[in-house]
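ingest -> validate -> predict -> emit
validate: passed (alphabet ok, no gaps, 259 aa)
predict: started
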Amino acid sequence: KGEGFCSGVLTDMHMLGFAVASEENPCLIFLFPGWELTGPVRFWLAVVGSIALGVFAEWLVAARRWEAAWQSTGVGRPFRVQWWYRQLSSSALYAVTRCMGYIVMLITMTYSAELFVAVIVGLTLGHAFFNSASSPGEDLSLCCQAGSGSRRQGRAAPDMGRVLIDEANPGHRVRFEVSGMTCESCRGTVRRAVETLSGVQGVEELSLATGDMIVVLSMSEDGGPDTIAASQAARVVSAVEAVGFGAKFLGSLGTTAAG
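emit:
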């Protein structure tokens, strides 16, 4: 049964540590009953498949980041994203990502040296293709996945942001409370999600410690400052929630003034 490639005894892992394929070692069962690597063709197909699964696992990490950014910016989106759609799509991607992570883990737990190397090669290729520009740790949580993928994403950012003031059209300052931020990448993710909205001049302040966020809104729309603040607040809250955080509108702080 081993076709001269392995001993013919079936196992789902080498029990004595890492081993290479040889006539002295058992034949591996690859993930499912019936997928028995009893010959060189099957074995090397499993190696190629392990590389592909590693690449796919890294692509899923990037896909979650792209999906969160797409929901927050609305670029190329023909419809308004409802809360249930955000939850459904992000949860589905999360489930598939975690499932793929466990599959890759099970392959490495066979203790086949060739399959282990194949998984590492696949993950490395996937990282190079899809995630090399993202900050370290982005595959740990949605917090660090939802950004634009800049290499600067993981660096510390100051609490205060410089917002340019248009003297002919000063902005309107509004205050929010943001919850769920645990790292600098979280803060960068929230800032980018808000600043990409139309009608937002910039984020003046975003505190990681307290969650306070002050946003400067454009006053080019019709209506008074309070009307503008109320109409824009819901969009800001939705943008923050779309990237995995909570937000609450606390009120208006008045208009900006040129210094």
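Residues 171 and 219 are 6 Å apart (CA to CA).
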